[in-house]
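Page 42, continued from yesterday. The earlier attempt failed because a stray header line got pasted into the input along with the sequence. Redoing it now with the clean sequence only.
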Amino acid sequence: MKYGFLGAGNLSSAIIMGLLKSGFRSEDIFVSSPHSAAILSKRLAINNVDEDRLLADCDLIVLAFLPEQLDSIVQQVGSEKFANKLIVSVLGSTSLKELTEFLPTAKIVRVLPNVNAEFNNSLTSVAFGQNLSNEDLKLTKNFLQAFGTVIELAERDFPAFSAIAGSGPAFVALFIKALQEAGIKQGIDSKESLQIALHTIKGSTENILQSGKTADQLVKKVASPGGSTADGFESLEENHFIETVNNAILATINHGRKKFR
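This time it went through. Structure tokens are written below.
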């Protein structure tokens, strides 16, 4: 089984590193990009090839370039070269319908992974196109599960999923930075403050995942009435913390709608 990536950006890099950590062989991974494929192939010891060879040799092909490049790349390569190929698209807001219009004879899957794929922790949404065999479905799921967890979603839910799971790592990182800087302002060393923030986020996440509690239940468990945590929580509420996060998610969704409508 050979895997090809048309595009060699951050997401391709993260997915490929996740695949390698899961035991995929570097000689079975191919990448093609006019600018960054050579650097990525050298760093990860994978194959740097042109589009024609990638399409001819690979069994599963990941579309990982910029969404606005789809038209020009298909015209340059030729849509006929995608015929009967299993295509996994990570092209953001590009729908299955749009992909099928450009690649009418391909077997298409639309997915939304995130950069946590590098550490086999991506949460990836997937929507399957038409004409996929049971073997195609199996191959796709095995591929996606190699770098994280897979959730099958209706396409109408992709914008919200993308904002939360795709852009979410940046928002979580910003919250980690805020916790770190709060510690620094209280006199804690920068490195130690970062460790405190990271382990607090990690421990809280594991608490909810392993206990089956809701986020609200964990809040009530920690923020005892009249305690110091309750005062801090009240400050967050007064400053519209949840509303601010909701607005960030909406801004992310609306950007995608404006860009791809």
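Notes: The chain has two domains: 3-153, 166-260.
Reminder to self: strip header lines before submitting.
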